[in-house]
Amino acid sequence: MPDHSAPVAVVTGGAGGIGRAVTAALAGAGHRVLSVDVEQSADPSAHAALVADVAVPGQVEELFGRIHERYGLPDVLVNNAGVYHARDFLDYDPTTYAQVLDVNLGAAFFCTQAYARALVAAGRPGSVVNVASISGQSGSPDAAYGASKGAVIALTRSLGRALSGHGIRVNAVAPGLVDTPMAARIPAGRRDDYRARIPLGRFGEPAEIAAAVAWLAGRDSSYVTATVLDVNGGLH
To answer: Its family (predicted)?
Structure first.
């Protein structure tokens, strides 16, 4: 039987490679994990798989209303939802650009807002972990993706300071190249170039990113906020 006294963690983008690994890591740490995605698919360790498009602010409000009513206030929020198109800058159209920004940045903004509003009203602490990217630090051939992840890093530092007085920590991980279906869309030649530049000589595994997320989400990092943790095999 599930432990209904266990802390609740919400993971967006839970159906993806990193999302499934984060779900498993947090469940292993004793959380009831609510996996959120546009499809009802999740790691088997998830307590529940919830369907919502977190790029739509109205659906975010409805999602967190459902969560509060059925599961209580979450202790942890992991903003992992993301899209990547591997598209050249000159080929971008306004609709695709808006989708990248809405999913990669807007979802993190509005999910954190809904999460924090409820915690502040209840006088509860919490922990937010955003999944950024090395592309947000060094740029990306996919300019919209790089811009969105750079904004996630700025959002992390801003909210880490803004919410600290309420006991809500906000941090991020910045993965390098990770062996996921999303990374598989990177053109083969570019993948080989990246691999050759990684000091550890390989792409990361989703579980390695999840371990960093779980640490930032938990009590062992209680004095860490507004911080971005690089998990990239030494690639800069």
So the answer is: Belongs to the short-chain dehydrogenases/reductases (SDR) family.
